[in-house]
Amino acid sequence: MSTRTTVVWVPDWPVVAAMVADEVPVDVPAAVHDGRRVTAVSALARADGVRRGMRRRQAQGVCPELVLLPADDARDVRLFEPVAAATETVVAGVEVARPGLLLLPAGGAARYHGSEEALAERIVDAVARATGHECGVGTADGLLAAVLAARTGAVVEPGVSAVFLAPHGVTELVHATSTPEQAAEVAGLVDLLHRLGLRTLGAFAALPGADVHARFGRLGTWARTLASGLDERPPARRRPEADLEVSTELDPPVERVDTATFAGRRLAEQLHADLVARSVTCGRLQIAARTDDGTELVRTWRTDLGGWGALAAARITDRIRWQLDGWLTASAVATVRDRRREARDRDRGAWSVTQPPVDVRAPGDEDDLAPVALVRLTLTALDVAPAGAEAAQLWGGPSGGDLRAHRALERAQSIVGGPGVLTATLQGGRDVRDQVHVRPWGEQSDPPRPADRPWPGRLPDPAPATVLVDPVHVEVRDVHGAPVRVDRRGRLSGPPGSVLTGAGSDRVRVVAGWAGPWLLSDRWWTHPGVAPQVRAHLQVAFDDGGAVLLTHTAGTWTCEADYD
């Protein structure tokens, strides 16, 4: 069915958030990258020819003044919270589709403010006053039409959204997704539609619905629904009833994000277990917190625009962590403290109509009031429906040993804090040290360097079992006892015959086999005019069954790692 939807859109939000966090001037072209390609571009950078999907060097070649900033989902969510809070001062019950995009039902709010145009003006003014950011507001029948209308601040009249969408390309479907995984899935569908000659939304919407479902499945039906100016799951006209809810009291009150996230992780696992037990999934996730002074903080996240893709406990935890990070930052804390001061001043009569406002603070009553702390955390699954196609993701589970290990790590993390328990994961790199990425246990962020990319000069498998914290100096000698050296062309002065290790190099290990050397020269461009320092890696096996990884640098050998 056709439902009026209003979208609040901040253009290029990942770039805007990155520039605010790094204090980059607004008159400088900037872009956000994921380590390989550009993922978001500012308006100034687009004017110079920079486009999403470009490689970093290509983008810098097009625009030498370009400032490249790293992608950070947590930063984007944290800095977007003030925008959502400002919008909620005009319309209650906004939904966060993704950082930079808010959804809200247009009907009741438009009637209250007089018209959909007046509602848009109020939202734009509220966001600008509270955050200083410019936003676009669009209203139409269906989500996709509202998103595209927000680019120009347009209001699409009822019943003509399909006509409004018809000339747009099918690539616009990507803008209706909420996660990178969904965007990648829709991008694959768009590529298939292009190869089939379906390049516009109008041409795609004109196909019979049954044929689209038979050829493209659930995703194709979702895309055709949006292309027709409709929406499978419109924003709620009222606050939905709570279908599944879990909550916990935080005693003592919590002020730190990592401590609150630990409690949130337990709630996420409990909520996910309830969803699995009932074989259902949820379309919206509501995160609510109560501060120690009674302030209620509530935010609703849309989890699956269109109903495809299950919400795992780890993804629930990610949203909790991002939201708590947004609530407990300086801007959110300042908002709560302002409310406290207003309530305190009202109690003391500072805002009496018979006299001007005066400072009635008692001695020692400073502006920096007690830190804002959370005393209660609640998760609510909204729009609960049968799992259907997502049921396959609900089968199975970890073993008892895994669960015991997870509980032990959680107990340790509750004592020392989130960053106190670290886990090592594999990432891309050439050196054995570069390939180790350490992150807090339970955090779901991707490594900064993907491991599935080509890394010229990378050491061949197998990887060493133990990488030494401090490399040990050794001596490598050939069969005649002469020191072995490596020249700039990677040639050994002689075949390794023995390796002297230990204090004073008094332990001799006989070489049974060796492989290499592999040359590696990292970041030679960072020191122009200076000859690059070349490292040579050598894998050595000994007659006693051991094996090590040796590194030769500037005439010196060191032992970097051991093989099992």
Chain-wise SSE layout:
Blueprint: E1 4-9, H1 13-22, E2 30-33, E3 38-41, H2 43-47, H3 56-62, E4 67-70, H4 73-88, E5 95-98, E6 101-105, H5 107-113, H6 116-131, E7 136-141, H7 143-150, H8 161-165, H9 180-195, H10 201-205, H11 209-227, E8 244-254, H12 257-278, E9 280-291, E10 296-302, H13 313-327, H14 330-348, E11 374-386, H15 400-416, E12 422-426, E13 436-440, E14 466-478, E15 496-501, E16 507-520, E17 535-542, E18 547-553, E19 556-563
Parallel strand pairs: 2-4, 5-10
Antiparallel strand pairs: 1-6, 1-7, 2-3, 5-6, 8-11, 9-10, 9-11, 12-13, 14-15, 14-19, 15-16, 16-17, 17-18, 18-19
Helix pairs in contact: 1-4, 4-6, 4-13, 5-6, 12-13
Pfam family, one: IMS
Biased composition (Basic and acidic residues): 231-242
Region (Disordered): 231-250, 438-463
Q: If you had to describe this structure to a student in words, what would you say it looks like?
A:
There is one protein chain. This protein has 564 residues and is α+β, with helices and mostly antiparallel strands. It folds into 4 domains: 4-227, Alpha-Beta Plaits (2-Layer Sandwich); 244-346 and 369-390, DNA polymerase, Y-family, little finger domain (Dna Ligase, domain 1); 405-458, no CATH class; 466-563, no CATH class. It has helices at residues 13-22, 43-47, 56-62, 73-88, 107-113, 116-131, 143-150, 161-165, 180-195, 201-205, 209-227, 257-278, 313-327, 330-348, 400-416; strands spanning 4-9, 30-33, 38-41, 67-70, 95-98, 101-105, 136-141, 244-254, 280-291, 296-302, 374-386, 422-426, 436-440, 466-478, 496-501, 507-520, 535-542, 547-553, 556-563. The longest helix is centred in the middle third of the chain and has 22 residues, at 257-278. It starts with a strand and ends with a strand. Residues 236-242, 305-310, 348-369 and 388-401 have low confidence and may be disordered.
